[in-house]
UniProtKB/TrEMBL annotation:
Organism: Tsuneonella aeria
Protein name: Parvulin-like PPIase
TM ranges: none
InterPro entries noted in UniProt: OMP_Chaperone_SurA (IPR050280), PPIase_dom_sf (IPR046357), PPIase_PpiC (IPR000297), SurA_N (IPR015391), Trigger_fact/SurA_dom_sf (IPR027304)
UniProt cross-references to PROSITE patterns, sorted A to Z: PPIC_PPIASE_2
Amino acid sequence: MAVVASPIAAQTAAQPADPAAQATTPSITGALDIPADVAILGKNDPNSRKPTAVVNGQIVTGTDVDQRVALIVAASRSEIEPAELQRLRMQVLRNLIDESLQIQEARAQQIEVSQAEVDQTYARVAAQNFGQNVEAMDAYLTRIGSSSNSLKRQILGELSWQRLLRRNVAPFVNVSAEEVNEMLQRLEASRGTEEYRLGEIWLSATPENAAQVEANINQIIEQLRGGGSFLGYARQYSQSSTAAAGGDLGFVRLEMLPSELAVAARQMQPGQLVGPIANSGGYSILYLIDKRAVLTSDARDAVLSLKQISLKFEPGITESQAQAKLATFTTTVQAMKGCGDADNRAQAIGAEVVSNDGIVLRSLPEQLQPLLMELQVGQTTPPFGSARDGVSVLMLCGRDDPQATGAPDFDDLMSQLEDDRVNKRAQRYMRDLRNDAVIEYN
């Protein structure tokens, strides 16, 4: 997974690419089809980097675009077609233009972000993804065709914009105590109804470019359904202020959403992706991360203590041999008298036991969650696995059930309402900056 995570928000752990998957150097004996008389058409100066755009006098080069595109390509789990790659380059260029405008506006307002602050945030990203090793992340970014400078510029843009909003927008957003109390009353009245944790990718559109924006967002959907990272695409594509958080809106109730999004979300199941959804000012992609009942405890928030009992099969084992081993394994597990008896009985048949405390039920695969909810301490799930991977069961050794959920804190709810209004004003602020900008394209 590539390091496209927003440095400011919670990070998704990125792993260095598999060295075996790296491109190898072509053999010098390879059969190259080069004519004896080479006619060079035009001039090429490798030291010349023509700008792709000039934003109020600040150059955005093709190299800037290439390195930012490389971050997204590395995050995608599927091959990106040439036509999609070209659309991706155009979107990245728009993002870099917006980023330039944000940095310029912050500086014009005498809001400075020091290089030390950028480096500190960059080091935090390295710590989260590469275990405190900044050099390892530098090398990874270079290997995928990006650079530390590209990621640091993204950090600079995010810090600059956030500070600008905190000074020029947030102080002028007012939420009254009456509004918060009214919202609390509505929450209490809706106790037991569902709320939804949604991710959103939003692209602004005008009547003139709506067709092109819709085509772009359909391509994003295709990439996401092919295995692309929603977090990575949201951070690079989304024009909402939630982009820095990977598009995560948190848990919201449907009445708090625009009607177009609420209608779509109501029909969704966790893990489902829907879009494009036309709404005021643009198009959205929605991803349902989770849903829960308002102001009620959720059994999936229980914290479990588990033992995983696993039996590996030898390579080349036949089906009949595997079935015989499975039968022995199942019989042995059923005879276990709780967690204290598991280790000795597992050892007798060559099985392994791994203990783990503090596992939140909802973090486990969806197929296992309903099975574990029904278990008593000392009981096990049915066996799962395959002849290649072996078989396992999970034994429940302890459960801390979640406490009943009360109404949200007054201050937290006020902060949520304020953030929503800041987000809407930030979108208008960005539109004004684009309207006033002098941009030359090459």
